[in-house]
Amino acid sequence: MLSFYPGPSKVHPEALEFIQEAFDQGIVSINHRSARFEALLKDTLEVLHAKWNIPANYTIYFVSSATEAWEIVAQSLIEKQSLHLYNGAFGKKWAHYTQQIYPQAQSISFDAQASLSSVELPSLAEIDTICLVQSETSNGTGQTISRSHYGESLIAVDATSSMGGIELPWKEADVWLASVQKCMGIPAGLGIMICSPKALARAEKLGRKSHYNDILLMEENRKRFQTHYTPNVLSIYVLNRLTHLLPNLSVIDAQTRKKMKIWEEFWHTNANWGLQCLIENPELRLPTVLALQGDPTQIQLILQTCLAADIELGKGYGDWQSNTVRIANFPSHTENDIHTLIKLLKHEL
Ligand SMILES: *Cc1c(COP(=O)(O)O)cnc(C)c1O
């Protein structure tokens, strides 16, 4: 099975060897307060900083999922009121769950064809935290994140389906969150949060420590190269080995964009399936997830044709459930994989 689902997706084939290695070396049984774990975590944080070009004063934490990270933002960082800007299902869910904690949290939904920077903002006087989605996996939009629009607010960004696949402007936000089963090509069960000094200062100021996963407790553990809870050590190990193996994120970024060009070109010139890019403006398309729109019967046909050939595409999601199909373009997807799928698509209709 070759999976182009936008997460969980194709796992890097090298991961199998690393999982075997972790087993053989007893990594799968180590305690998260042991010296071996501390050495593993220290090295993993260092290699992520180096390969992903993360600013030295930003800190990295492992959590259980992106969804948990939404909640950590709410519980550790939002002071009184957040503002959520979204154009798809994931941003909407984030706003919804934050509103369960802070009923006064504001949200603005904008058109999927519009850019984040074009959204008209309310007065930010009462807003202390802005929650944005860089990679809206449900419709394949990718937004440019820039602090300049949001005054002094803390900025938290969901980059779940782009982190590890494209370069992100780390300094333009205070919290970046993701999980490993999307762009990182690792089996599900681990999330990542990357925080600025400003985010930590906010957590200090609030000093809540009212949940086991408060950022302050996460930071106390990180300083000792430990984690606040028993983490998915196997995934941390696989992420470590893969990050050492893969090139710098700037190189991966160029590869991702080159592969997306192959897709855009294919769908532009191939009218047989009657599908076109859901997002009209190429600048607003996420380089890591392509959403195609078409007649629901054609959507069903393409999903089934691929499944019959043991290739899985992503179904539509949320508002776009019946009339879109999504194709992941993650670093684990090689140009060869893309040509395998293109060959099938050319011959089956
Ligand atoms: C998949 C996804 C999530 C949720 O990730 P989990 O690992 O299930 O917590 C959140 N946001 C976006 C944009 C996603 O694509």
From TrEMBL:
Cofactor dependency: pyridoxal 5'-phosphate
Entry keywords, A to Z: Aminotransferase, Pyridoxal phosphate, Transferase
InterPro entries assigned to the protein according to its UniProt record, in alphabetical order: Aminotrans_V_dom, PyrdxlP-dep_Trfase, PyrdxlP-dep_Trfase_major, PyrdxlP-dep_Trfase_small, SP_NH2Trfase/AEP_transaminase
A GO molecular-function descriptor: transaminase activity
Coiled coil location: none
Start and end residues of each Aminotransferase class V domain: 5-260
Family: Belongs to the class-V pyridoxal-phosphate-dependent aminotransferase family.
The protein's name: Aminotransferase class V-fold PLP-dependent enzyme
